Amino acid sequence: MSRTEPEAREKLVEAGLRLLEEQGPEALNARRLAAEIGASTMAVYTHFGGMAGVYEALGREAFARFERHLRLPDTDDPVADLLALGLAYREYALASPERYRLMFGLAPQGSLPSFGHDLTTEGTPTTVTEMNDAFALLPRLVRRAMDAGRIREDDPVLVAGQFWCMVHGYVLLETIGMFGQEGRGVLHILGPQAINLLVGLGDDRRAAERSAGLPPQDLGTAKAAAEEPAPRRGRRPRSTQ
To answer: What domains are defined for the chain?
Structure first.
């Protein structure tokens, strides 16, 4: 392999991601992709074996970038960190919706190969290393919340799956406009749902609301709570466990 071949492959991947975001998956074809870097269509077949290989390379690179976007610094509040990961997940999807759809096999043409793993038995969601690396951040944070006594002991991978379902489902609906464009869905739907899931897993509701960084009335849905300010409450000392 010549010294320029890895560089050409990287340029094709960059061009593919750019075309995907700017014009959608319909714009991805061997001729258009090669033209983006001033090469012949043979370059696509040389480096990827065809468009199926291109889609796989784009998906893997998208997941690698996804993992880097989700890698946030830890704080002393593992539940706040868990919620922050969910918001980072949403942020990535909204910033790169076509890329996100490709990653999860939702593009009208082309996607990653069959994932082939059952999370409930395999412990990982896919055979794609880059996707597994991104997912691994979630059970790690779940484990921290369990170790801190915020949520009850359980299989962190399966609990992570519950959080993943919640955020992924919300994001899919938001990307097609179901919750408007101003982020109100986070306040009125995703936030309360996250709090309810945490409480169902054993967390104290007020502690969960504090970890979300919002006072209780901001996450409520009752009209009275929205119209009348809640009485001031002293802050509960943070657990040192």
So the answer is: 1-49 (1.10.10), 59-227 (1.10.357.10)
